[in-house]
Structure formats: structure tokens, C-alpha cells
Amino acid sequence: MNRRLANPSPDLWAYLVPALAALVLWAAWLGWDQHHDVHPDGSTTGPYTAWQVAGLVLTLLAPLYWAASRPSIAGPVVGITAGLTVAAAYDWSDDSSGLFAIGVAMLMVGSLLATTASTLVITAVKRHGRGTGGATGATT
Fold first, then answer.
1. CB 64 within 8 A of CB 18
2. Do residues 65 and 118 make contact, with C-beta atoms less than 8 angstroms apart?
3. What's the mean pLDDT when you consider all of the chain?
4. What is the DSSP letter of 73?
5. Phi, then psi, of 54 in degrees rounded to 5
6. Rounded CA gap, 63 and 102, in Å?
């Protein structure tokens, strides 16, 4: 039993690596910006800007691709969704209105859908690339 805990299975890494990557990348891209911007007309935006969210999404593609290349396609879906959900819940929990829970739920559903779609595309492309025949593999 100790041996199994000391050396987790490769499938477990497909869940842990994306989850930890999502937590770390959230902190790197979004965790440091905590203030809302007030515009001259009195409206507020933020705390995040579009480039921060785009940076988070683009950098999450690397661990997503890595995990989607493993035997279990559930790893990146569950891992990234769980990591982003935990990070958002922690980051937004100081909201005095209590509406942060709705935002966290929306982020969880959105990341679940996006990582599922991305994982399916990655696995389909990788599976198609391994296939034999086709236009690139045909010989005369």
C-alpha cells in the first residue's frame, strides 16, 4: 500500500497535473489583480482584463494537451475544471454580496464544457494522425 502512494499511477498524474497547473496559472494571470477600474462616467470594470483571461486560457492549453494525450480523457476535463473552480472560489470568496457562488458555478460549467470540447478535439486529431492510409499515407 505504501508503494502505491509513493508511486501514483500515470492516470492519476493526468488529473493532478492539470489541476495544479490551473491553480498556479490562475494565481499567475488573475490572482494579483484584485481592484475594479472606475471610469470617468462612474462605471466600473474588472478586476480582470481580457488579455489576462486570454493568457490564462492560452497557457492552460499546454497542460490540457499533455493530459489529453494520456489514456484517460477524463483527466484534463476533471483536473482543469476542478483547479479553476477551486481557484475561483478561493479568489472570489471575499465578495460581501454572496453572489460569488453563482460566478463560481458558471465558471465551473463553462470550464467543464470548454475542456471537454478541447479534449475531444485533441484526442480526435491525435487519433486521426496515428491512423494509416488517407491522403498523406497513400502510396501508388
1. yes
2. no
3. 85
4. T
5. -60, -40
6. 27
